[in-house]
Design brief:
The complex is a heterodimer. By secondary structure, chain A is α+β, with helices and mostly antiparallel strands. In chain A, 49% of the residues lie in helices and 19% in strands. The chains are: A alpha+beta, B mainly alpha.
Amino acid sequence: MIDTLSAPAEPTVAPDTPCAHCGLPVTDAPVLQHGHAFCCTGCAVVFDALSQAGLDGSYYRVRALDTSAARPAQAVAPDAHVLAEMDTPRFLAEETTAVEGGDRRVTLFVDGVHCAACVWLAERLPAELDGVHAARLDLAAARLTLTFDPLRVPLSAVAAWLARFGYDARPARQAATEGRTAAERRMLTKMGIAWALAGNAMLLAFAFYSGLSVDTDGGLAHFARYLSLALATASVAYAGMEFFRRAWASIRFAWHDRSLARLHMDVPISLGILVGYAQSAWATITGHGEVWFDSILVLTAALLTSRYLQLRARRLAGEASDRLLALVPALARRVEHDGTEALVHADELAHDDRVLVQPGEVVPVDGRVVEGASSLDNAVLTGESRPEAVRSGERVQAGATNLSAPLVVAVEATGDATRVGQLLAFVRAADAARAPTALLADRLGGWFVGTVLILAAAAFLLGLPHGPDVALHRVVALLVISCPCALGMATPLAFAVGAGRAARTGLFVKREDAFEALPKTTAVVLDKTGTLTEGRMTVVETAGSAEALALAAALERTSLHPIARAVERAAPPNLPNATDVTAEAGSGLSGWVGGRFVQVGRPAWIAASDPQSLADALDRFSADGLTPVAVAVDGRLALALGLGDALRPEAPAFLKRLARDGRTAYLLSGDHPSVAARVGAALGLPEERVLGGVSPEGKRAFVERLAQTETVAMVGDGVNDAAALQAAHVGVSVGGGALAARMAAPVFALHPGLAPLERLFDGSARVMGAVRAGLALSFAYNVAGALAAMAGLVTPLVAAVAMPLSSLAVIGIVIGQRSFGRATAGS
Amino acid sequence: MGNAPRGVSTLALPPVTALFLLIPAALLLAGLGVLGFRWAVRSGQYDDVRTPALRMLLDDEDETSPKPNG
């Protein structure tokens, strides 16, 4: 019963014709313009903008060169408030830095950049706009660094120029990214130095492996040993500190808890490095015994490399969450006492100030309406997809979008004091407070330390008959060779590789424990609006003439109301023009189209009940939980529409799959219980697992309760789910809702729909498979190494060969993992 | 650093005093390399390793073309 009404297709264009801009099939509702076919108006607008600016030739040529290209940007409407904020003196002072010649430098996040052609287009800014002096785009981070003269070109003009080509530019709040870049650079330097020290120590060790010996040629051998000692001291003190610090923290933690299980994998790593170093230093100074410098230095460098890659993978996902854009505009139109309006920062507003909210704008504060009547889209906060009518005296909340008429609101709360502000504050706090879960390999740390110590004792006892020197040598050999290098690398590397591949398919995994938790998930809590459904009003049922649909759409084109948008989407392109359109808030529109009088709106407002069949259809739609809309032409009913939030086409298959995998699905919705029940029934969910009318706080409580007995994955979008996403073991936000809200989740998908979720479940299982294979291999290596050491077979040369080999084998397994295949990229 | 193994092959001969100079010299060179690497990291050359690869696909042909948007 739920099916989008498809517009009549143009007979000349096949549905699989590639869109002239993005190359995706145009499907059965193409947009035809200038003899080209497009999949949507967004693509058509960008194509138009490119050709008008004379940039189309180079853009499409450069894009064809870049095989990594996913889907190009579609036109976006720049947010008026964001543009206005960029030009305020306060923004210039806080978010830009001065460079020579009076210019300012600013970093913008640019959503929608994805390939070489985007780099080309964005870096053409200096040639296109006077006053922009330099533009550099960092594609992976989607950051554009601009040098510009604020006196000659306002930043808003730059953002507007980018928006014409489908790039949504927002100010990048700097502080957070700078700390991360510094940490990453520090780690990279450390890694480089560790490898340089290890390489040189290895070359010196070759001399010993080839026969250089303290006994035959004393001077040179001692010289080489002391040089190695110097290199090793530098490496252990500088690079090894990375492990010692974490090992020490975990030892103190374990001491405090009196539990060996608290010991971290860094403990055996540090133990191996320190014992190997101490023994080798002793041997160098006394001139007796063996040196292991090269093995421990290579080990340190290799482990640092995996740490660095992990950090880098985390940055990719983390940087995306810096784009946590203000959901609530930073600026508000304050109505002054003399009746003029002024743009001010929302945090400068005082209680009871009057704020004007134009149609299409987001309400910046919590407050009471003092003037005007309109309808609001409150989906951000409640998940309710139907617009809500507000009148003078009623409350409005920050984050809601004003749809039809100007409102004057008396301020009651701003910023973090608003309801949406409080929700976001909870999410931020929960995100920061959540201790990083010990990963699988780390949990084995205590067990590992215990085993190694027992084996070392056994090695000592077994060696004693050969003399205490031999026994001690075997213990050192055992501790060095069973230093869990491969084990320590397997998990971080597997996660880094998995997260990197996932990011390429538009899935950002910000917390690695998500990979571990996902395959174990037993309960999946799904939000309704925007997750299982499209998240917007769509014409789902229709009765009456197709001609009336075009007439209605011609009227509705003039309105921002979601019902109007839905009607326009359902209608064929190339609509006639409407004149004398008048809107009655909360009721509908009327006007003239081609000499005929057309009314679109609530059936009660239209007040025509002729013919009876259409009036009956309207009643039926409303009984089904749909929003009925009547269209009258010249005073007579011509069309009955039933609007609702259509189910995503892939939703039933997804739920079947969850059931097959043995996961229980729950449906939570802020929408009216009857609407939730209708969707639940359409999906075949049992009634007790479908809950409607749940507040954001209620969703969080539900997930917290469920998480006590099950491993819960929460899937949602929007701010109303944000708290629940944090409370679950894994929170996944999917496309559809506000980007800013999605990015607060531990895992978020760039693309709408449920397909990314399936990829996520499959991919995490594969990542965990690679982790387990890597762990098993390195365990086998460690057992073999320990046995060989006990038998006295391990010499520095054996260690120098066996240790890197085992690490390479693990790296091979982990990098070869078949997670998140690229075939589905750029959906 | 290729000198170290060669020194080994002359084991039967009297100690090669040149190695006492050559090894530290090689280490010094390696140290210079490390300094260069540190400079490259600090100046941000490793921050973005993807875009420059694409940038070379672009030509500078349009420098003199008229400005449609002024």
